[in-house]
Amino acid sequence: MSVKSYLQETLAAYIALFGISDSTEAFRLFIEAHDNVIARKNLAGHVTGSALVWHKASHTVLRVFHAKQKRWVFSAGGHIDEGELPWQAATRELHEETGIIATPVFFDLQKPMPLIMDAHPIRLSVKKNEPPHWHYDMVYLFAVDQKPHIEADPSEIAEYKWVDVGDVTVENSPVDLRTQMLRYGL
Q1: How far from 54 is each of 111, 145, 155, 184, CA to CA, in Å?
Q2: Is 112 within 8 Å of 1 (Cβ atoms)?
Q3: Which of 153, 147, 178 is nearest to 66 (CA)?
Q4: Which of 83, 100, 108, 147 has its Cβ near the most Cβ atoms within 10 Å?
Q5: Which DSSP helix (H) or strand (E) runs through 60?
Q6: Longest dimension (CA), the chain
Q7: Cβ–Cβ < 8 Å for 115, 26
Q8: What's the pLDDT at 139?
Q9: Residue from 3, 21, 16 nearest 117 by CA
Q10: Cβ-Cβ contacts under 8 Å for 178 (sequence gap 6 or more)
Q11: Rounded to an integer, what distance in angstroms lies between the CA atom of residue 91 and that of residue 62?
C-alpha cells in the first residue's frame, strides 16, 4: 500500500470517527495537492509519524522536550523513510530517540489508526537550510505495562518526564488527551 493511499483511507476513517477539524482539513488539502507527501524536499510540508507512550497502570504518558523545536512534544517522532508507512516511522523513531521497543495499539485491526492527526508549523532551520514548513503528524499510541528504561538521544531529546494523561490538554498539546483516549474507549 502506498503512503498516499494509506493516508487517504486513514483520514476518511478518522473523520468518520471524530468529524472534520482544522487539522484533518489541512491533511486533506495537503494530500490532494501533493503526490509525494513524505519528501523532505517538499517545502510546503510533509507527513510525519509520532509515538505517544502510555503507561496503562499509572495512566501517564511520556512527554519529551524536543531539543530542536524547543517545546514539549509526544515521546518521539519524525520523518517517514521511503517504503515506510507513518506507524512504522513512529515505531522506528521511538526506538531511535528513546531506546524503547514497542508496538503501536491498533484500534482497527485491519488498518493502523492514529490516536491523533495534527497539522502544525515548523520553524525556519538555518542549520538544515530549511524554510518554515508544515508537518502533518500522525500520532500513534504505544501502550506499555512497565515504564521502560529511556535512552534519550540528546540531539533529539533535551529532557523527558511522565505526566498524567489528564495534564495533557489543548493548552500544551494538539488535543485534550483524556478526551481523545475516551473516544477510543481507553
Answers
A1: 20, 9, 23, 14
A2: no
A3: 153
A4: 100
A5: strand 60-66
A6: 43
A7: no
A8: 94
A9: 21
A10: 165, 166, 168
A11: 15
Q: Which fold has domain 3-183?
A: Nucleoside Triphosphate Pyrophosphohydrolase (3.90.79)
**Using CA atoms in the order 148, 177, 5, 106, what is the torsion angle rounded to 10 degrees?**
50
Beta bridge partners of 60: 55, 164
**Which pTM was predicted?**
0.91
pLDDT of residue 18: 86
| Positive/negative CA dihedral, 158, 164, 168, 171 | negative
What CA–CA distance (Å, rounded) separates 60 from 145? Answer: 11
Sign of CA dihedral 8, 12, 30, 73: negative
Sign of CA dihedral 32, 29, 179, 162: positive
- Alpha-carbon distance values, 138 to 60, 72, 79, 80, 155 (Å): 20, 17, 11, 11, 22
Q: Note the pLDDT tens digit of each residue in 75-124.
A: 788 899 999 999 999 999 999 999 999 888 877 656 678 999 999 888 88
Cell of 12: 476518511
